[in-house]
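Appendix C: a fully annotated inverse folding record. The material below is reproduced so that readers can follow the format used throughout the book. The structure is listed first as tokens, followed by the designed sequence.
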């Protein structure tokens, strides 16, 4: 899909779907099957993000620097997941899981906005 539509469109679809899931997960929490589907779709979207970044970093940074930059991005995923765990654990006591999901939704809007400022065709 990345070859046909480009990074911006594919990333826009992934992040928009992620925002929609976060916005609606508190509404479907009582239906077990829908909740399971929402969680599975979240993992599907995370896999989509992990799949598009190697090609994009190589395109933007070149064949020599691209793999190194992807290493930094991949480490960023790990660090962000650890931070999300710590933050959600601390905030759950004061604002509950619904509040934590709304904060996650707000954080998910940031890459959506940055997507339009990303220099997709930059040549190093």
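Designed amino acids, in order:
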């Amino acid at each position: 899909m990345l070859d046909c539509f480009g990074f911006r469109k594919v990333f826009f679809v992934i992040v928009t779907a992620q925002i929609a899931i976060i916005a609606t997960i508190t509404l479907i929490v009582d239906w077990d099957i829908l909740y399971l589907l929402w969680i599975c779709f979240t993992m599907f979207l995370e896999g989509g993000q992990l799949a598009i970044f190697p090609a994009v970093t190589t395109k933007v940074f070149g064949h020599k620097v691209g793999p190194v930059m992807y290493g930094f991005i991949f480490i960023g995923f790990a660090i962000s997941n650890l931070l999300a765990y710590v933050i959600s654990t601390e905030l759950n006591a004061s604002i509950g899981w619904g509040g934590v999901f709304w904060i996650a939704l707000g954080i998910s809007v940031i890459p959506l906005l940055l997507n339009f400022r990303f220099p997709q065709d930059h040549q190093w």
